[in-house]
Amino acid sequence: MKIRSIFGTAFAAIAIATAAPAAAHGIGETVTPHFSQTIPNIPGKSLVALIVDYAPGGASPSHIHAKSAFIFGYVLSGEIESQVNDGPKQVHRAGESFYETPGSRHPVSRNASKTRPAKLLAVFVVDTGEKELTTSAEQDSSSRSKK
Fold first, then answer.
1. In the prediction, which pLDDT does 140 show?
2. Stated pTM of the model
3. Among residues 43, 39, 50, 40, which one has the least CA distance to residue 72?
4. Within the chain, which residues score under 70 in pLDDT?
5. Would you give the distance in Å from CA 139 to the centre of its chain?
6. SS3 6
7. Residue extents of the structural domains in the chain
């Protein structure tokens, strides 16, 4: 019974956190929670899906993903330019997908078009208790320099 209660509490916390209205994070970027569920056969892990809408020319600020987060990205419409860690910048078109390993740094994530919108589905497999899926790269570097 205690385990069931713990899972129920964890799921409720995630549901509340992801039920918040859509939030703008970058210029011309809106992130909307779409789905959140604990994974029953992988204790301690949850699946969280977000829709990222980019206005023409919209972009996410440089950010770091949670250390526990494996991410699958699928371009729903338009074209998304992305760079992960020190890899090359790549343009992913509607119907294409990519992944990011846990703790990845994402210096570039933006709409590749200045005239058409783009939309991305981001699916995270993450530790159930993880509070922040992304952290500003500036915030992360300033916290490291204080250590």
1. 44
2. 0.76
3. 50
4. 1-25, 138-147
5. 17
6. helix
7. 2-145
